[in-house]
Amino acid sequence: MESARLAAVYRVLYGTYGPQHWWPGDSPFEVMVGAVLTQNTAWSNVERALARLTERIPLTAEAILALGHEALAEAIRPAGYFNVKARRLRAFCHAFVADGGLTGLSGLDTPTLRERLLAVNGVGPETADDMLLYAFERPVFVVDAYTRRLFARLGLLAGDEGYETIRHAFERALGADTALFNEYHALIVRHAKAACRTRPRCAGCCLNAHCPAAS
DNA sequence: TACCAGGAGAAAA
DNA sequence: TTTTCTCATGGT
């Protein structure tokens, strides 16, 4: 992975879309809840689910656990996979409380914190890295389907590399820079929402799943 | 109508 | 070990 090319892609995205001010959450804990709810789901649906949840309870791990599975699943229904996500949220809240909450987790070094998050059922690599970057402000690059698709189309990735391989490649090339990782990932997602609609002649670097220029 | 969205884990091959 | 299946609502 060439640092210069990664920097060039970043400059183009930033020049096109500007700063994204991610993550859209009022607190680190809300960011973490959002990270679970957004798994394979559009953010607009997550916002509905968060709104319904905060209408019912204050957004704390204790309150979520006290709500119970059925009521939690009903509250987050708009985010889809509501039974699965209710189970995952409760598992995360149990671990969050057991580890001393935000204060306890913030005291851990990044590799240990990442391991702790990944040990929770329902928290995979991308969700853990969303939490690390946007809730704990650790220099961890988030690799999602958009990242893989964009850089494969640009010829910088084969596309079938493992998650860790890609993450380490970005982190090596860009250096440990939390602010840059924050903005870069947000810009990739922003680009995915614009894609071909703003480019009559797509160069193949858009993120539309069925773009003819990308096949 | 069909496809896709800011994945993860279990089951099957 | 790798691939496939399941979970589900809402927008386009």
Keywords:
215 residues; Endonuclease III, domain 1; DNA-binding
Describe the secondary structure blueprint for this structure:
Layout: H1 3-17, H2 28-37, H3 43-56, H4 61-67, H5 69-75, H6 82-98, H7 101-106, H8 110-118, H9 125-135, H10 145-153, H11 163-174, H12 178-194
Helix pairs in contact: 1-11, 1-12, 2-9, 4-6, 5-6, 8-9
This protein binds a DNA duplex (13 and 12 nucleotides) through residues 34-36, 38-46, 48-49, 77-85, 88, 121-127, 130, 142, 144-146, 185-186, 188-189, 192, 209-210.
Please describe what this structure looks like.
The structure is a single chain. With 215 residues, this protein is an all-alpha fold. It has one domain (22-184): Hypothetical protein, domain 2 (Endonuclease III, domain 1, Orthogonal Bundle), CATH 1.10.340.30. Helices cover 62% and strands 0% of the residues. It has helices at residues 3-17, 28-37, 43-56, 61-67, 69-75, 82-98, 101-106, 110-118, 125-135, 145-153, 163-174, 178-194. Helix 1 packs across helix 12 (178-194) and helix 4 (61-67) crosses helix 6. The chain is globular, with a radius of gyration of 18 Å. It starts with a helix and ends in a 21-residue tail after the last helix. The relative contact order is 0.13. The model is unreliable at 196-203 (pLDDT under 50). The structure holds a DNA duplex (13 and 12 nucleotides).
